[in-house]
Design brief:
heterodimer, A: 190 residues, alpha/beta, Beta Polymerase, domain 2, 5-stranded mixed β-sheet, 23% helix, B: 380 residues, alpha+beta, 3-stranded antiparallel β-sheet, 16 helices, globular
Chain lengths: 190, 380
């Protein structure tokens, strides 16, 4: 029931012409007109309008982001969420995921970029300032580095943690970083 | 005469101590940081010239835990995220998972969920008002707010057997129907509470000290707030009329009538007014839920083993603090492949630097209070 209500609300916000086409087809065309060949894949979970996903070429991300933020038919001004997921079996194992929201059109869009191990993802702090801490968190927990980030430091874990816990190869119990051996107290007369 | 004066001035300045910037450390055990938040401030006199937050003291790896347990087992963990408004966190999780499945939830469950979520909003806002006023120096409000918050927690205990970490909802609906006593007490509370909000307002809204401490403090424009991804009352305080309950309705909100209050100036005072009005609107929603509460089952048919189809969803709800969402990636197995918690406190706290820069060090306390953070969900 909430799903129905949501998809109804979404359809009202989006253009009626997009009713038959897959979700976000209009946005894909918008981006392709400006920057051809930057959208690599397009999908939507169960064709839900608010689950539309566009996979963007890694180097084109800030340009595509600015376009989607400023173009009057997109206006994705709010970076709702920025996160990542690790798929170690894939050729590009790190998927960095951006959830955008448009107040003007009451619409959501998911952008995604896929990065190699050790590859730098362009930072979107210049597009949405709110990305600052979220990119730091992805850097902290996944070890994905962001190019052009003003202050890329760990945020949740201590500076000297060493590894990145949300990677799939990291064990649930940790690698013994937290083990604390109490220094032996000097005995009297020692 | 002139010569004498100027020579004394020179003498004075030569004995003046040199001025330098001062770095002070607020927290992590400072009572006004509302948890274990450490704020490092660089001061020029009393003016804040730089600010850095040190968070993560409460990091428990909830997202990693979520990848290793089933969808049902994760519900109690969501209680421990925003522990001030635990039912809201439960609601975000169950609705996100239900979106993944596409289940039809019975109407009665929707209404009870909305009802309990509004109670959690009131409880969260009461705790915020109590501690925020206490930070600025008003003691009475603290005691009055806790009196009413106690009633809300008793209501939770009546319905779910726990006061704080309630574990209120289940995938597919509720564990069982709420007792009649809960509904009677809810009605009693909803009738009594608007008068109590009036009491708080007589203490604060026109209070000269309160106005001096909050008006024009921590101002942020609507454009800056959107740019910084701020959500919830902080965004609405800046004049952006955006509430997920209205923009992308979930649970019973499509059928409920309420107003989304907004501020004008985006200062601490406007955020205070927005939250006060939200408590009034929550009471209205509770009245409507109780009046319209449909009869029927409280849970849909849920399979014994919960295995969603492979795919990814993002679903967010309007938590008392802002947009609280879950990004779920499922690989078709019994455990989620990736659980991302979209924390409103974490993101809103990221805007703290912008809010405190150029202000006075004494106002940092008021600004942190007005963002309304809870570190359990900020650090996860």
């Amino acid at each position: 029931m909430p799903d129905e209500a949501q998809s109804n609300g979404q359809e009202e916000g989006s253009a009626p012409a997009a009713a038959q086409a897959p979700p976000a087809q209009d946005l894909r065309e918008l981006v392709e007109r400006e920057y051809a060949g930057t959208i690599l894949e397009q999908s939507a979970y169960k064709d839900m309008a608010d689950e539309a996903t566009l996979v963007v070429r890694l180097d084109a991300l800030p340009q595509v982001g600015s376009l989607l933020r400023d173009h009057p038919s997109a206006r994705f001004r709010l970076l709702s969420d920025l996160t990542a997921a690790h798929f170690p079996a894939e050729e590009r194992p790190f998927h960095v995921v951006y959830h955008l929201y448009s107040f003007d059109h009451n619409r959501r869009l998911r952008l995604k970029v896929k990065a190699h191990e050790g590859e730098q993802v362009p930072s979107v702090v210049s597009v949405w300032s709110g990305a600052n801490w979220m990119e730091r968190e992805v850097f902290d927990l996944f070890g994905v580095s962001f190019k052009g980030h003003p202050d890329l430091r760990r945020i949740l874990l201590p500076e000297d943690w060493g590894s990145h816990p949300l990677r799939k190869d990291y064990p649930l119990e940790g690698r013994g970083e937290r083990v604390y051996t109490k220094p032996r107290r000097k005995e009297y007369g020692e | 005469m002139f010569e004498v004066e100027s020579s004394t001035r020179i003498e004075r300045s030569s004995v003046m101590p040199g001025t330098e910037e001062l770095i002070i450390n607020m927290g992590p055990q400072h009572p006004s940081t509302h948890g274990v938040l450490r704020v490092i401030l660089r001061l020029d006199g009393e003016t804040v010239t730089d600010c850095d937050c040190d968070i993560g003291f409460l990091h428990r790896g909830t997202e990693k835990i979520g990848e290793n347990i089933t969808y049902t087992m994760f519900i109690p963990y969501t209680d421990r995220l925003d522990y001030i408004a635990a039912p809201s966190s439960n609601l975000a999780w169950v609705t996100a998972v239900e979106k993944l499945f596409g289940w039809e939830i019975p109407m009665r469950a929707h209404y009870i969920r909305s009802l309990v979520a509004e109670f959690s909003r009131i409880s969260s806002h009461l705790l915020w008002l109590a501690t925020h006023a206490l930070d600025i120096g008003a003691m009475t409000v603290f005691l009055w707010c806790f009196r009413e918050r106690e009633m809300v927690l008793d209501l939770f205990e009546t319905a779910f057997g726990a006061r704080l970490t309630v574990n209120a909802f289940r995938l597919g609906g509720l564990f069982q129907d709420v007792p009649q006593k809960f509904l009677d007490l809810s009605q009693e509370f909803a009738d009594l509470f608007p008068g109590r909000i009036g009491d708080y307002e007589t203490l604060l809204t026109d209070n000269r000290i309160w106005l001096q401490r909050t008006r024009g403090i921590g101002v942020i424009s609507a454009d800056d707030a959107i740019d910084l991804s701020l959500t919830g009352p902080v965004l609405r305080g800046s004049g952006v009329r955006w509430d997920i309950r209205r923009a992308e309705p979930y649970a019973a909100y499509p059928y409920l009538d309420f107003v989304v209050p907004v501020g004008e100036n985006g200062d601490v005072y406007d955020r205070y007014l927005v939250r006060i009005e939200e408590m009034r609107q929550s009471t209205r929603i509770i009245q409507q839920c109780l009046a319209q509460l449909p009869k029927g089952p409280v849970s849909c048919k849920v399979p014994r083993t919960i295995k969603p189809p492979a795919g990814e969803v993002y679903h967010s709800i309007e938590n008392p603090k802002g947009e609280f969402g879950f990004y779920l990636v499922s690989d078709g197995s019994e455990t989620p492949y990736r659980v991302r918690i979209r924390p409103p406190s974490f993101v809103n706290l990221g805007g703290l630097k912008k809010l405190v820069l150029g202000g006075l060090v004494a106002d940092v306390v008021a600004i942190i209070g007005s963002i309304d953070i809870v570190l359990g969900e900020c650090d996860r």
